[in-house]
Structure formats: C-alpha cells, structure tokens
Specification:
mainly alpha
Length: 175
C-alpha cells in the first residue's frame, strides 16, 4: 500500500539520489566521488526495499555498495598516493560533455520507450494498450537469447567489466 510516509520517503530518497549522482560526477576529488557513488548505490537499495524486493536490496548492498565500492577505493588508493598533494581533476571541454550527455539521455529515453522489450512490443505500445509487464517478462527479456531479448549485450557488458578489472590490476602493478 502506498501510504503518505512511503511517498514522502520515495521523494526524499529520489532527491538525495539526484544530488549525490551530480556530486559524484562533478566532484574534483576522486575519493569523495567514490563516496557519493556509494550513497547512490545505498539509495538504490532503499528503493528496492521500499518496493518489497528484499533480496535485490540485500544484493545491492552486499555486492555493489559493499564489494564493488571496496574494489574502487582499493584501486584508487593503489594507483594514487593519498599523502601527496592531490591534483584537482580538470574540467576540460565541459560544454562538449554536457552536450554529449544530453544527447545520450535523449537517445536513451527514446530507446527505453520505443525499443521492443516484451513479446516484440515496445514499452510505449504496452502502456497504450494497458498491458501489464511483470518482473518475469523483464527478466526473460534481459536473459533470453531469442529475438528482442538481450542476453548478448548483457554478457558483453560483463566481459567489458572483467577487462576493466584486469586493466586496473595491471596498471596498479606497474605503478
């Protein structure tokens, strides 16, 4: 049930997520950016708990907020000496970055609403036809190998993340 307390909590967490996301991207100190990212991941876990998905919330905290953030902080500390005077991150070509980010957001918006997701229908078509989309349908769409299912990109992203981890370890060893 949606109580007033749930709705208020939702908006408080949503505003905090937006603020911490912006702070994570615009922070000039890398450890602070990692801390802001940690807050974003914990806020996402709160959303899962609020929706009643306790397992996903626990996984979000254990895997992402716990494990991945520890890896990020160790990678930062292994490649960057905290005792040195920290050089601030540069903001070169800020306008181009904003233009590219807005263009990517527009493309992502259209992709979410107009790409085929469930049974060859887009999200917009399902919303207009008042069809319900269950979590099972979304899970099958992401992990299926049929037409309009996204197992291959899902696996490609996991290989890309593995390559990033191996690259980070290699750079840390050479330093």
């Amino acid at each position: 049930m949606d109580t007033v307390g749930n709705i208020v909590l939702y908006f408080i967490i949503a505003i905090a997520l937006v603020v911490f996301s912006i702070k994570a991207v615009t922070s000039k100190k890398i450890l602070r950016a990692a801390t802001y990212l940690l807050f974003v991941l914990i806020g996402t876990a709160i959303f899962y708990f609020q929706l009643g998905y306790q397992f996903l919330g626990a996984v979000q905290i254990a895997v992402y907020a716990g494990g991945i953030m520890v890896l990020f902080v160790f990678a930062i500390l292994l490649t960057h000496k905290p005792n040195e005077k920290e050089a601030l991150l540069c903001n070169h070509r800020k306008t181009w970055g904003i233009v590219v980010a807005v263009a990517a957001a527009i493309v992502l918006f259209f992709a979410v609403f107009y790409m085929p997701i469930v049974h060859g229908n887009s999200l917009m078509a399902c919303l207009q036809a008042s069809n319900t989309i269950t979590m099972h349908d979304i899970g099958v769409a992401f992990t299926g190998g049929e037409r309009f299912q996204y197992l291959l990109p899902f696996e490609a992203i996991s290989v890309l993340l593995l390559a990033c981890i191996i690259g980070g370890v290699t750079i840390a060893r050479k330093s």
